[in-house]
Amino acid sequence: MNAEPRPALANAARRTDKGLSPVTGRRRRSRWIAAAELGLISSTFSTIVSQLFAARIGRDAAVDWMTVAAIPARDWAISAEPSWTAVLTGIAFHQWADFSWALVFFGVLGRWTADLRPATILLLALPWAVFSSATEWFVLVPLFPFWQPLFTLQQPYWIGLLVHGTSALMYPLFARLRWRRGAAAERDIRFTNAWITGALVVVALLGAIALFGSHGYEPPWMGRDRDADQTYIRHMTAHHAQGIDLARIAVERAQDPHLRKLAMLMVASQAGESRIFENWWLSWFDTEMPDCSTEERAAMPGFLTQAEMRQVKAAPADRFDAVFVETMSKHHMGAVRMADQMWHSGGDPRLRIMAHAIRHAQQGEIALMHDASGIPAVATAVRNMLGDNVN
């Protein structure tokens, strides 16, 4: 009389019949668990580095996180002063996105990536960062599934690439995580130990630089023309101050709720940039920033006269939105011209990088004020990233 097969053996037989042996099943589960662990590590690392490094290239991290939060949350996330709720929502959404890309790379594509050596993973991870950041910037955020052009028009593609690249730098650790209980190859252990040590050193170094920077001790000025850089900082700070005043009027009076929220974003972003300008000035030049004269203001491109400011304040309610969009577009066009000149100058590299982002964002806000969306918004963002397209 034949005995009934034991349940464990029967289950193993069924898995074998389906082409999935017990060993293969365990390896697949281990691969997905390691991919999830790697996703948590890589997303957290990119969040920390982004937070610490943002101000070094002229980015206000809180405003950037708020902009990221607006992808899923839309206008709810936007305010004139980034709230902790919006900042944490932006960080959580960013980490979810980075986590998901790691799952795709090592889980969905694990058949080809799971057994690679750390150095090979790194070589593939960097092109993956280009692909994943481009997919988000060109497709997933502005077209499908979020249909939210604000992020793409506000931030040039290279910002997302830097963030994804930072996350991808942690991908070689997968070669260690995929093995349980220290079963990784000795050479992989040595490589990943060195990689983890390097990552911790980078975080500590960036933390120290950020700490000193917050107290007015940024790395020294590195431009070629001190007078030109000082003039740009002073002029853009004054230009931003007027832009903030103009945007605050729209925060109170705009009839279109989306335009009102966009005005709040203008206040937040320009105020954040002005704080960075002030900190850089004090750190680089060790003196108070002189105010701009009346003559300097009058000569700035896009700087509004008192009569133009009064015209906005006095506009009737049913005409306010149109008057504001026309006036703020003129103001932004002037800032774009100033930033474009700095981008093409021999100024401090940080000022030039910041100027490129300002040029992109203010052109993007002009498009947003004119209700850009869909594929035309993506095309506009690409043109804005490559040049001054409003002057």
TrEMBL record:
Keywords: Membrane, Transmembrane, Transmembrane helix. The chain crosses the membrane at residues 32-54, 84-109, 121-144, 156-174, 195-217. The keyword Membrane applies. The lineage of its organism: Bacteria, Pseudomonadati, Pseudomonadota, Alphaproteobacteria, Hyphomicrobiales. Pfam families: DUF305. Residues 229-371 form the DUF305 domain. It comes from the Bacteria. The keyword Aminoacyl-tRNA synthetase does not apply. This is Uncharacterized conserved protein, DUF305 family.
